[in-house]
Amino acid sequence: MQAQTNETTSCPVCHSEEPRFLFEGWDLQFGYPDPAYVYQCRDCEHVFVAGSLTPEQLTDMYTNYYPRADFNVDNYEPHKEKSGFLHWLDGEEGFAFRHIPKNVRILDIGCGYCETLGYHKARGCDVHGVEADENTKKIAERYGFNVEIGLFDPKKYEPESFDYITLDHVLEHVIDPLAFLNDVNKVLKPGGKIVALFPNPRAFSRFFFGRHWTQWHLPFHRHFFSRRSLEILAEQSGHEIEVIKCATLSACLLLNWAYLFYRGHKGQKSPFAVAAFTRFDDGKKTAGTKFGFGLFLKKIRFLCLSMRIADMFGRGDCTLLILRKK
């Protein structure tokens, strides 16, 4: 243990040497067995997990530990248009796909259950998806979506062919964010935009919940971006920052309290985490009667205003980033 925490590790963004070791973390949600060692750069304040993973390891993580294999394809529903006060109160701006106009060509990297693909298709968009989890294939095949299974590979697309690329909770998962953004740039039109959402390491919740902050989601989340590390990445990858602000789904705070009481143990799945991942966040009842009270609290929008206030002060759980290709 001591040898691991003292190893020489450089910041993956600014390459500063000898970052500060924060803690050893474990997956308390889906039971991934290996620990994660979390560091913070002393210069750009980027927080990251040390070490690298192969494409094969990444595919194994998402296919064998994420619980999409249990998803009933018959229950598929695309996201719907939302607006008004309740849209704001629920924090619906805390999704990258909500910031995409109609009738454009989109690549959604990390398309998950394909709900965003159905949403964009209904709005007249030419939409394509990428997903590392092989369990997504059955959804895409059933509903006729164009989805590449595996890690994003720019060679599979025409150069400079997309108006928008969405990264809804994706950028924090990649091993090398600069190399990834450079690859994304290859298929984005000049003036095209990347819309990304990812955890905010300055969130009030991070400091309140400590190692049990759900947005750590170790070892699946590899990066936690500071404003400075985002500015460095944007400049090095040929983008201009158009928007950077907090935008958090309000239910995140309620879910974090639930995880605190129903968290798993090292190498074991948490029943609540699996239920939440397989549709609790949409208010459906697949979480079971055991979590019915949580569904009730979500329905009455318990704690929603707290997250809206946190976002106003730049301390919500998630950051919205919109980049424009130069």
What's the topology here?
Layout: H1 2-5, E1 20-25, E2 36-40, E3 47-49, H2 55-64, H3 85-89, E4 105-109, H4 115-122, E5 126-131, H5 137-143, E6 147-149, E7 162-168, H6 177-187, E8 188-199, H7 204-209, E9 223-224, H8 227-236, E10 239-246, H9 251-262, H10 271-277, H11 292-299, H12 304-312, E11 318-325
Parallel strand pairs: 4-5, 4-7, 5-6, 7-8
Antiparallel strand pairs: 1-2, 2-3, 3-9, 8-11, 10-11
Helix pairs in contact: 9-10
Question: What are the main properties of this structure?
Answer:
326 residues; alpha/beta; Rossmann fold; 4-stranded antiparallel sheet; 12 helices
Explain this structure.
This protein has 326 residues and is α/β, with parallel strands linked by helices. It has a single domain, classed as Rossmann fold (3-Layer(aba) Sandwich), CATH 3.40.50.150. The chain has twelve helices and eleven strands. The strands form two sheets. A seven-stranded mixed sheet has the order 6-5-4-7-8-11-10, with helices on both faces. Strand 7, helix 6 and strand 8 form a beta-alpha-beta unit. Helix 9 packs antiparallel against helix 10 (271-277). Residues 1-6 and 279-290 have low confidence and may be disordered.
Task: Give the number of domains.
Answer: 1
Q: Count of DSSP E strands?
A: 11
In angstroms, what separates the terminal alpha carbons?
Answer: 45 Å
Structural class: alpha/beta
Tell me roughly what share of residues is in helical segments: 25-40%
Q: Could you state the order of secondary-structure elements as H and E? A: HEEEHHEHEHEEHEHEHEHHHHE
Radius of gyration: 19 Å
Please tell me the CATH architecture by its name: 3-Layer(aba) Sandwich
Low-confidence stretches: 1-6, 279-290
CATH homologous superfamily caption? Vaccinia Virus protein VP39
Contiguous helical run count: 12
CATH class reads Alpha Beta
> Which fold name is given in CATH as the topology?
Rossmann fold
